[in-house]
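Hey, I'm writing a tutorial for new members on how sequence and structure tokens pair up, and I'd like a real worked example in the thread rather than a made-up one. If someone can provide the structure for the chain below, I'll link this post from the tutorial.
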Amino acid sequence: MAFEIHLENLNEIREVFRQFPSVADQEIQSGLEKAGKLITRIEKEEVPIGVSGQLRQSIMMRLVPNNVTIAPNKNYAIDVHEGTPPHYVSVKNPRDPLRIWAIKKGINPYAVQRSIAKKGTKPNPFVERTVAGAEGEVRQIFSQVLENIIKRI
């Protein structure tokens, strides 16, 4: 027993589905860019400023197809975020970052050095605060991405 189903507009339906990957990629990339800019802005608000503001200035967004990365490019960012165990930090040289920071803050650099050697540094989890602060808006962005894809196909 054979039967036949006739679909009207089958060619148009096939064309829509052929275009789907391209439409989806465009909308997803747009969503990633919006979310990346939002997260970058929030992270720059959450990161501690310090004296120089260099850590804040180093936060950059890198957008490539299907991926966005937001990260500071200072090697000490992880130490700020995670904290450090007790360790020695030099303050003898006038160019030592801790010395410069302490002097700008009006603190004896050797007192800060001793404190770090004894206690380490406390974590400042600015990335976790960024994620918590951005989560709702990022969800909204990608809900809109999905709606845009549906509208376009």
